[in-house]
Design goal:
This protein is mainly beta. Helix content is about 10%, strand content about 35%. The strands form eleven sheets. Strands 24, 25, 28, 29, 32, 33, 34 and 37 form an eight-stranded mixed sheet that branches. Strands 19, 20, 23, 31, 35 and 36 form a six-stranded mixed sheet that branches. Strand 3 (about 35-40) and strand 4 form a beta hairpin. The longest helix has 15 residues, at about 250-265. The protein is flat. The N and C termini lie far apart (about 100 Å).
Length: about 750
């Protein structure tokens, strides 16, 4: 039977034996200390607590039956004890020490026996990335540039430093990582805290660790195939998630492997060493211990976590320090998913950092933040897909259902100040495909006396003056939103039907999904949901597919009455009961700062969608000025003879062509070049004749060869976007021929 005897059991008011702390001064705090005897099976025979004067008891029978005597810290936090701080004695040696005198403990040992409250803080967010982004990321990660992205600081950029979606693809790796998107807080889940100790020596010229680092980077690259951009990819390339992400977390070493290896091999020795020393994930290469879980805690409703635990003092040698990484898990319907694994992805933070954990996991769910009541009653168009509505160029409203006469690029997204500013740039983009519409309805919209309950979205064509023409079409497809509910053991995702409903003689009404229902209950709506899906292909005049359209939002109360802001005129629509209410419609016209009030009974924006296809054709191949269009072409000339093509490359609305290019490739893996690197104007649009490209000489194309086969490529890219896919639709065709001098 285990015998527990505290320091209260004394002989003549004191214990049998004494323990002394070297360097301890009267009045200084003393750690709680236990002296424990364990047997051959590591079972505890006796535990003695050392009293405030250093006395303790140890029965003779415990000493005789013990295999080891352990001296170390006591208290309620035994799991936090670092086993390396325990003193271990052979029973006979321990007996000799305590019987002959005092057991002395060096300061370096006992000072580690205090328990301290350790804490880490951070936030968890979810960034939904679209397929084009993954495709571009794969391309950028294999580019040989030396710039490096640090994922620890990727989300800390100021708003003014964010990269604009107007930038032309292909983008650099840092641009893509910091790409502005609607990241949402993760408000449900568990965060596990892991700690490791790193002892990092600065790298030196001819460092013996360098060959091993190069081999590791080479091994990473063996699993990353060469990548080219994929126009409108249906899904992320399969290897992207496997190689660059570890359970939802972006792997810093893998994503930078190509450029890091290129830099280390290309730079002078001193510069290469400086390059390594400047990057923590390379600097501490294989200089860190095994990660150990030290704590876990819950994510708060605002996406933050604060996790604390008791730990013993940690004293490290010079150049050694602790680092922390996190694993985030969510449980849905009884199944647990890891949505962020910073340990596997090599994302480590200092304890003092306010860690920003960004998940890209398809299994994760975030929480919508609709603002708090008391901020005012208003509604505005917030985002279209992933694109914030202030990027939409729309004229000011002039009535509930119309806008001012449009300028040359009204209705486009990412507008240019003038046509010249857009030449060859990814600006003045036309809409196309299905637009996902998200509106902001503030929580005060449902309070007394407003009582907004429904919304309705409609579309009409616009004439050249911004007025609606033709029939009004209403979004009427069924719509539901997902919410998370606590079942008592886990989180479940439950769909809620929003409509369409009919009320008060009005059809195509949808419930406004407020965060707090009419009974005061909070609803955890999942993030990244939309109020309407507008298939632009359904609302096109086949004779005039380039026409602009007007998108209108109306708000209704529970009885189907149209609510219009106080001080605005009713719409006057027949068969409609209208009442004034104390709210405003607003329009986002800038990233940050106030929104513009729209003083009308409904909210109307102009959109310019144009789903017409890009057109390309290689009409003829040309030797000097002579055209040829036979199936098999063998062109003979001298070194100064020229090659060109006649071709067509256009979008029916010229400003929606981004660019076209003409390139050639010699043989298999031979030299390549451009007849035309880039142009953005329409060429050869009927009834115009085909255009003629610039030329290259036979000598430039053949090089040292007297004859060879070639392929010429004509490629074109457009600007059409649905707000989600910010890549560029493209087409490419080719023709084969041979040259001989």
């Amino acid at each position: 039977m285990v015998e527990n005897q505290s320091a209260a059991a004394k002989r003549d008011g004191q214990g049998q034996y004494r323990l002394q702390l070297a360097g301890h001064k009267p009045g200084d705090e003393r750690p709680t200390i236990l002296v424990t005897a364990v047997d051959l099976k590591s079972q505890v025979l006796h535990v003695a607590e050392v009293d405030a004067q250093g006395y303790f008891d140890m029965p003779d029978e415990a000493l005789k039956g013990a295999r080891l005597i352990l001296v170390g810290p006591g208290g309620e936090n035994q799991e936090a004890i670092d086993p390396n701080t325990l003193l271990r004695y052979r029973p006979r040696q321990f007996e000799q020490i305590i019987r002959e005198g005092t057991l002395n403990i060096p300061a370096r040992i006992w000072q580690q026996w205090f328990f301290f409250l350790e804490c880490v803080t951070g936030t968890v967010s979810l960034c939904r990335r679209r397929p084009w982004w993954f495709s571009e990321l794969a391309v950028a990660a294999t580019a040989p540039a030396f710039e490096t992205v640090h994922v620890n600081t990727a989300r800390k950029l100021s708003l003014s430093a964010r990269i604009s979606p107007q930038t032309t693809l292909t983008k650099s790796l840092p641009e893509l990582i910091n790409w502005p998107t609607r990241c949402q807080v993760v408000c449900n889940g568990v965060v596990e805290v892991y700690r490791r100790t790193c002892c990092c020596e600065p790298w030196i010229i001819n460092d013996p660790r360098l060959p091993d680092l190069i081999r590791e980077l080479e091994d990473l690259l063996r699993h990353i195939p060469p990548v080219v951009p994929i126009p409108n990819p249906p899904d992320p390339p399969p290897f992207v998630e496997k190689q660059f992400f570890k359970e939802g977390a972006l792997d810093e070493k893998a994503i930078n492997a190509h450029r890091d290896l290129s830099a280390i091999r290309s730079l002078y020795k001193t510069a290469a060493i400086d390059y390594i020393n400047a990057r923590p994930y390379l600097f501490c290469h294989r200089s860190c211990g095994t990660p150990k879980k030290v704590a876990e805690g819950f994510i708060n409703p605002d996406g933050r976590f604060t996790i604390c635990w008791f730990d013993s003092a940690r004293v490290h040698p010079v150049r050694c320090h602790d680092e922390f990484a996190y694993i985030v898990k969510q449980t849905i319907g009884g199944s647990t998913f890891t949505i962020y694994n910073g340990v596997a992805a090599n994302i480590w933070f200092n304890q003092s950092d306010d860690a920003s954990l960004v998940s890209y996991s398809p299994f994760a769910f975030g929480c919508r933040d609709n603002g708090e009541p008391g901020t005012g009653a208003f509604a505005y168009l917030d985002v279209i897909g992933d694109t914030e509505s202030w990027h939409l160029k729309t004229p000011d409203a002039t009535a509930w259902d119309r806008v001012a006469a449009p300028g040359y690029n009204d209705g486009t997204v990412f507008p240019a100040a003038t046509p010249a500013d857009a030449t060859g740039q990814n600006l003045n983009r036309n809409w196309g495909g299905t637009l996902k519409l998200n509106y902001m309805f503030s929580e005060d919209m449902q309070t007394t006396p407003i009582h907004a309950k429904y919304y309705r979205i409609s579309i009409t064509e616009a004439d050249g003056s911004g007025n609606p023409v033709g029939a009004r079409h209403y979004l009427s497809a069924g719509l539901s939103w997902n919410k998370t509910v606590w079942t008592g053991t886990s989180i479940d995702v439950v769909p809620v039907v929003l409509g369409p409903f009919s009320q008060g003689g009005q059809d195509n009404l949808f419930l406004i999904p407020f965060d707090n229902d009419e009974f005061g209950n909070h609803i955890d709506w999942n993030a990244d949901q939309y109020h309407g899906f507008l298939n632009t292909a359904l609302y096109v005049d086949p004779d005039h597919p380039e026409k602009r359209h007007l998108l209108t939002l109306e708000v209704f109360d529970a009885t189907g009455q149209l609510l219009h802001p106080t001080g605005t005129a009713p719409t006057g629509q027949p068969g409609l009961t209208e009442v004034a209410a104390g709210f405003t419609f607003r329009r986002r016209f800038q990233d940050l700062g106030p929104t513009a009030e729209v003083h009308f009974a409904a909210l109307t924006h102009m959109f310019w969608w144009d789903n017409q296809d890009l057109q390309i054709e290689i009409v003829e191949l040309r030797l000097d000025s002579s055209p040829f269009n036979e199936e098999c072409l063998f062109l003979e000339g001298d070194a100064d003879s020229t090659f060109s093509i006649s071709y067509r490359a256009y979008h029916p609305t010229e400003m929606f062509q981004l660019s076209h290019s003409i390139s050639w490739q010699r043989g298999l893996h031979g030299a390549s070049g451009y007849l035309l690197a880039s142009a953005s104007d329409n060429v050869g649009e009927p009834p115009a004749a085909p255009g003629i490209s610039p030329t290259n000489t036979f000598g430039e194309m053949l090089g040292d060869n007297s004859k060879c086969s070639f392929t010429v490529f004509l490629s074109i890219s457009g600007k059409t976007t649905d707000g989600d896919n910010l890549g560029n639709p493209s087409k490419s065709i080719s023709a084969a021929f041979a040259l001989e001098v």
